[in-house]
Structures are given as C-alpha cells and as structure tokens.
Write a structure and sequence with these properties.
The chain is an all-alpha fold. About 65% of the residues lie in helices and about 0% in strands. The protein has a domain of about 80 residues.
C-alpha cells in the first residue's frame, strides 16, 4: 500500500491568502484539486487579500513596528514558492513605503519654505494662505504616518479657501503647490 504524499498546507495557505497566483496555479503547483483547496480555505477562514497583507506591512513600517506579517508567514513554511510570494508582496510594500517617505520629505520641505515665507508676509490674505498650506502639509504627514482619519471626514467650513483658490494664491505668491496634489 502506497503512502499518500505530504501536502504542504502551510505553503498553500500563504499562497492562497497572498492572492498572487490563481487558485488553479496553486492547485497545479501543489498537486491538490482546486475544490479541496477551496473547502480547506472555507473551513479555516482563509481570505484571498494581497492588499491586506501589503497594507499591514506598509502600516507597520510607517509606524516603526519591526515585525512584519509577511516575514512571520515566511517563517511558518519552508516552501520556496510561499517565500517567493512573500518576497513579491514585500517588494510591492517597499515601493509603497518609499512613495510615502517621499511624500513626507516633500511635505517637510514645503513646511520649511512656508516657515521662511511667513517671515516676509505682510498681507492678512497672504498669511492665511501660509497658515492653511502649513496645515495641509502637516495633515499630509499625519495621514501618511496613519495618525489621522482620511480627509473628508469633516465638512469644510464656509470661510475656508477652496482647493483651487489656495493653489492660485500660492502661485501668485510664488509658494510651492506640490503638496496640494
């Protein structure tokens, strides 16, 4: 009587959850029918969500947390394919982290320029633009760092400048507009 081959369920789970490969590709790679994988996923509550794993990696990195869930997942299995999937997700997360760090650098640069501009500002409207632009740069940094809820959670006040008015005023004053998107 021949012994059944060992199925690497940990590797299948990591690949299933990462959602990088199709279910058929996972099935072919591990020699397990798609239906069997679906049943096991349902039974154990596996969810196919690469963006959730990537989001968790980016969130941990931006908040200074050392342990990454993708590294934890890689340690749970010695399967080469699972490790490759984790590497792909981490690579995509690293790109997002680099973009977020760039956004923080740009916002900080704008804050420095605004700090210089405020020393020469004389008109109340000019000062108002600088104050609002400073607030936007700070809000941008806080959102990137995950310290605040997303924009739009509070309705704008009637006395605030519109996005277009703020950009036009900054252009008129020769101030940077790159932080406004």
């Amino acid at each position: 009587m021949s012994k059944k081959p060992q199925i690497d369920w940990a590797g299948i789970e990591v690949e299933y959850r990462a959602a990088v490969r199709s279910l058929r590709a996972i099935s072919d790679l591990h020699g397990v029918p798609e239906a069997t994988i679906r049943l096991r996923a349902k039974k154990h509550g596996w969810v196919r969500d690469a963006s959730g794993l990537k989001r968790e990696i980016v969130k941990d990195a931006m908040s200074g947390v050392v342990s990454k869930p993708a590294q934890k997942a890689a340690q749970e299995t010695a399967q080469e394919t699972a490790q490759e999937t984790v590497r792909r997700i981490e690579s995509a997360a690293d790109e997002d982290i680099a973009d977020m760090e760039r956004g923080i650098r740009i916002s900080r640069s704008c804050l420095e320029k605004l700090e210089t501009a405020v020393t020469t500002a004389k008109e109340p409207k000019e000062i108002k633009v600088i104050v609002e632009a400073t607030g936007m740069a700070i809000d941008s940094i806080r959102r990137i760092r995950g310290l605040d809820s997303p924009p739009g959670s509070q309705p704008p006040k009637d006395d605030e400048m519109t996005h277009e008015e703020l950009i036009e005023e900054c252009k008129r004053l020769g101030l940077p507009t790159s932080i406004f998107g």
